[in-house]
């Protein structure tokens, strides 16, 4: 009876330990796509338009332009960038490409997805996708592993025929993030997110637009931020399963000892 109660308490402890981790790993609800949906894109890293994961963004441009967006990604997240380009009714064969850079402007490799596609003449649209690797809490200086911070999307046409330069196109991008959970957690975290230092504050840009110069404009994280703060993935379900495994191992040891200790001293 005593062993049964102990085992029941261990099961209850396991459930209580896993519940917070499961709630932490569940994706959070995104905002309404109809409100606050960006309708323009930047033309450089410095002017990239910030977008939130789960909320689509649209932009009008011309073939030959570079379109830039930025988003934030935290540790243990796996971002996937999708882009759709609506082409002119009449055009020659065009090749479109989507590139993703981190805050240090290092081009990030795609795990899978059609990063480059050629649209034959007469095609109305082209679809692109790039699934990034899991964002790590920290990495060696020599590695190109993705780190927490700002990421930049660049959409462009490569190998564009001269006859198609300057034609109007419309683009739509969307960033989706999935949490890899404790399986992708590492023992370490950056003290600060990977800040690029190339985006200026919005109020400084407005002051410059009014003809006033502001030399105190400080670089910021391109207007992006994690919902629960950066490096919020320190608590993962790996810690819960480790603690629960230790409790179960201790109970198994007590149970094994009770089976082997016997009934005490033999009678005289």
Strand order of the largest sheet: 1-3-9-5-7
Radius of gyration: 26 Å
User: What class would the helix/strand composition place it in?
Assistant: alpha+beta
Termini Cα gap: 30 Å
| Helical stretch tally | 3
Helix percentage: 10-25%
Question: How many runs of DSSP E, i.e. beta strands?
Answer: 12
What best-fitting shape do the alpha-carbon axes yield? elongated
Low-confidence stretches: 1-34, 197-208, 213-219
The string of secondary-structure elements, in order, is: HEEEEEEEEEEEHEH
The share of residues in extended strands comes to: 25-35%
Structure, described:
This protein has 268 residues and is α+β, with helices and mostly antiparallel strands. The protein has helices at residues 2-25, 202-209, 237-260; strands spanning 49-50, 57-62, 67-73, 77-86, 94-102, 110-112, 116-119, 125-132, 149-158, 168-179, 199-200, 219-220. It has a 5-stranded mixed beta sheet with strand order 1-3-9-5-7, with no helix packed on it. Strands 2-10-4-8-6 form a 5-stranded antiparallel beta sheet, with no helix packed on it. It has a two-stranded antiparallel sheet with strand order 11-12. Helix 1 packs antiparallel against helix 3. The longest helix is centred in the N-terminal third of the chain and has 24 residues, at 2-25. It starts with a helix and ends in an 8-residue tail after the last helix. The model is unreliable at 1-34, 197-208 and 213-219 (pLDDT under 50).
